[in-house]
Amino acid sequence: MPIITVLPHDQLCPKGATFEVDTGITVCDALLNHDIAIEHACEKSCACTTCHVIVRQGFNSLTPSEEEEDDLLDKAWGLTSVSRLSCQAVVAAADLTVEIPKYTINHAREHYDKDWDI
Fold it and tell me: Disulfide engineering: 96 pairs with which of 58, 70, 74, 90, CB 3.0-4.6 Å?
């Protein structure tokens, strides 16, 4: 079973984490299953960039990105050459080291006004 190592993130995973996962799961689902509450505003449908991660180790083992994901990633904060939308990155047999960026672009949350009646 591959091991995912999550680098420390101030809010979501202050001490970092390491856990085993089954192959075939998305990185997003793996994080959520291990109580790392990564944002996924579009409910994992490849329609936003809130689940953007940087894959520091094992990037080439992931399923290749498709054009739709690549187009969205161009809008992600802190984009790197090893960035992926975690909802689209499917784990293979290799271990991964993942960094969750400090910021995310979530228009719904950024434009939320606490006085709105939702």
Answer: 58
Q: Which of 112, 5, 24 is nearest to 63 (CA)?
A: 24
Owner of token pair 């996924």: 40
Residues 6+ apart with CB under 8 A from 117: none
72 φ, ψ to 5°?
-70, -40
pLDDT digits (tens, 9 = 90+) for 73-113: 999 989 999 999 999 999 999 999 999 998 776 544 444 44
In degrees rounded to 5, what are phi and psi of residue 22? -80, 150
Give this prediction's pTM: 0.86
The sign one gets for the Cα dihedral 54, 99, 64, 94 is positive
Q: Strands 52-57, 17-20: parallel, antiparallel or unpaired by DSSP?
A: unpaired
| 96 close to 20: Cβ distance less than 8 angstroms | no
